[in-house]
Amino acid sequence: MSRPHPLELLEHRLARRREQGLGRRLVCVGQATGPRVRVDGRDCLLMASNDYLGLAGHPRLVEAALEATLTCGTGAGASRLVSGTLETHLALERQIADFKESEAALFFSTGYMANLGVIGALAGPGDLIVSDALNHASLIDACRLSRATVRVYPHGDVPAAARLLQEAPAEGLALIVSDGVFSMDGDLAPLPGLLALAREAGALLVIDDAHATGVWGARGRGSLEHFAIKPTPEVAMVGTFSKALGGLGGFVAGSRTLVDCLVNQARSFLYTTAPPPAQAAVAAAALSLVDEEPWRRDKLSQLGQRLRAQLSGLGLTLLSQEGAIVPLLVGGAEKSLAMGRALLAGGVLAPAIRPPTVPPGTSRIRLTVTAAHEMADMDQAAQAIAAAAREVGL
Prior knowledge:
Number of strands: 13
Number of domains: 2
Distance between the termini: 49 Å
């Protein structure tokens, strides 16, 4: 019996995804900065960007990229341990460490690579990883690739995590792994409880603060600052420059021992070409703006409160009560797709979020607010959401 052609198999798998309402396509928006974009030739209010502080088009970041490119060229030429380490990388890492109040930091090409690097460098066969059920895909992939034993606890359930930690081998390393702010729900991890657990169990706590860095905390330092927790050697802090900080790249901040382990063992750091100088220069400029323009965080909070108040007034179910991420629960995948299409027809870009990104039955419209928005934008979004909800029977 002959096997079907491999492309036929792939087409069959794609067709099955489409039948389940899980098909995906790329949406071109022309440019990624600002509160409005063009989709299929029409102007739309953008309510799906992670550019929370509205920095992606900031003149300081553009100037930093241009100057670094003119001075240092467009590429690093090699991995960091060969000839790719530039002064811009080292200066940025000192700035990250200062920003995060840590002993040291390491710059990665993306936040995804930072998560793969830190977990893969710290954990392996004979070690135990205890991971939140709603962690980002990059954390899930990192845990699987580490070849450590992985146990998953229900979302935010510290007692359940404590029970799983009892399986830790006597001589192995134990990691607790969690997002700081969960990307699809917008809620905070119970970091005080997780840190206390890590200290009690002799474990390390890895926090992916991609959606908190620059936004949460009095000075935008992230989820630890929000809980008034001082950085501590038991914690590895992961962050990204691709969201609130308007650029690209990831980092890990923590103890000098931690960073030395990453330099020696993080495969996503060791075996890739170093980020170009412009990328590091943009990241450095963005960190400075977090301190220089605190009004952006204040405005973000006010905009989020206004949108939530209007949507709650419509009787819609929201999955978070503060922050830049405003997830609107829809339920089924097909219904969420219909909601996204209705919103786009009404001039608002906020695509449906479906499995496997979120659990079955919890498909949603993930609305995001940025400091580039104005109050009138929140009113427009609420009106479009109200009309779309009526159309799909939400």
